[in-house]
Amino acid sequence: MATRDIHTALVIADFRWLWVGSLASSFAMNMQQVARGWFVYEMTASAIDLAWVTMSFMIPQVIFSLWGGVVADRMPKRLILCIAQILNCVATLIMSAIILWGQADFWDFIWFGTFNGIVLALSFPARHAFVPDLVPERLVFTAMALNTTSMNFARILAPALAGFLIAWIADGDTNSTLAVGIVYLVIALLYLTSSLTILLIDSRGVVSEPDKKNSVIGDMLAGVHYLVKHPPVFGLLILSVIPFLFGMPLNTLLPAFNEDVLLGGPDDLGVLLSAMGGGAILGSLMLAARGDLRRKGMWLIGTLFAWGFATSAFGLSSDLTVAVVVLAFIGWLSSWNMSLNRGMLQLEVEQKMRGRVMSLDMMSHGLMPLGVLPVAWVADNYGINTSLFVSGIVFIFLVSLSLLMRAIRYIWSGSRAQRRAERFGV
Q: b or e along 279-311 (b: 16 or more beta carbons within 10 Å of the residue's beta carbon)?
């Protein structure tokens, strides 16, 4: 029954085109992660510099995401997504030219990351708020999990493709600008493909009538007020912040871990990222096939604890095979947890507020540098292994501490209430 829901969701043409467009843009972002991480670390040999490049991408998400939420609630979502991918395409072409001419330096990656972060902040809320506009409510969990699957599918193939292209074109030259520049050309083509695919969607997306009494700032504040007044929504956002602070820094530091601990090359980095993507796609597909999953609150919190333990375990690894296995498990946990969180969030939020709530969700993810910088500092001073081990311990501690909050207990008890309702057919 649940597997049939996957087919039913993908049969809906508008959702299918959104899914394909998301796949193309996710390929672009994941290929860029490998190319950027490899090039910057070869250029600077500093984990802190890797963290700064990540911050240039994440900080705009904190500053501009609320604007993106208001835009998503006021404007056609299809138009927002199409314009965003065209802007990314143009900017990537410019960055490719700078790299190919041998003029790229650390600051170029900072301005490019900042621009990408702004575009993502203004379009991310629309992409996720678009999903419930395209599918019936009973398919929302399945559709959100499939949307995550498109991103995770890219995490399997895109890193390996980028790593292979760099290794093949560079032919042993670790400082090859030609290889990285060509990868950026491929990334630009993927952004263009995404924008063209979005144009095939018939639905413009539901546009809410703005409150005439509110300015744009007033609409932003209304979103914050809505969050405060709805404990389940607030709790779900808290539980999405913690892994971005102390789970996701692993992704940023993976190029340094690969080179300093595993003594690997760009192809090994591609394998590591693909292993994480493989676990992630398995997790999102499993959730898509179990849209009727019971005890969702318990699953949500339980996978957070396991994610923290796995992060610490990865920090202790020094063998490529062990690292691949642990990363695959982390990918499964992160995908299951994030898909579940997003699905629960969509069902808790009123349609007219979805864009703004998704922007608040994105803003919380933009806090990731607050975790990346201290973790990177520990890496530079005490080693990558130690930094990731400590990151996992802090992760576990914060999840444990969050259980003292009323909003988190509400989610936990809500899952038990749902179980009782299902048991008695209420």
A: bbbbbbbbbbbbbebeebbebbbebbebbbbbb
Distance CA 368, CA 306 (A): 19
Instruction: Give which of 209, 235, 198 is closest to 360, Cα–Cα.
Output: 235
- The distance from CA 3 to its chain's CA centroid, rounded to whole angstroms, is 25
Q: How far apart are CA 256 and CA 383, in angstroms?
A: 10
Q: CA–CA distance from 215 to each of 37, 74, 205, 369 (Å)? A: 40, 12, 22, 30
Cα–Cα distance between 300 and 53 in angstroms, integer? 30
State if pTM tops 0.90.
no
Tell me how far apart the alpha carbons of residues 336 and 34 are, in angstroms, rounded to a whole number.
Answer: 23
Give the mean pLDDT per block of 10 residues along the chain (426 residues): 67 89 89 82 75 80 79 84 93 91 84 89 82 78 78 76 81 69 92 93 72 65 76 82 83 82 80 82 76 73 92 89 91 85 76 74 68 79 87 91 79 50 37
* Helix, strand, or coil (residue 402): helix
Distance of alpha carbon 37 from alpha carbon 50, whole angstroms: 7
Rounded Cα–Cα distance for residues 206 and 76 (Å): 7
Taking a C-beta distance cutoff of 8 angstroms, is the pair 246, 392 a contact? yes
Cβ(212)–Cβ(333) below 8 Å: no
CB 80 within 8 A of CB 72: yes
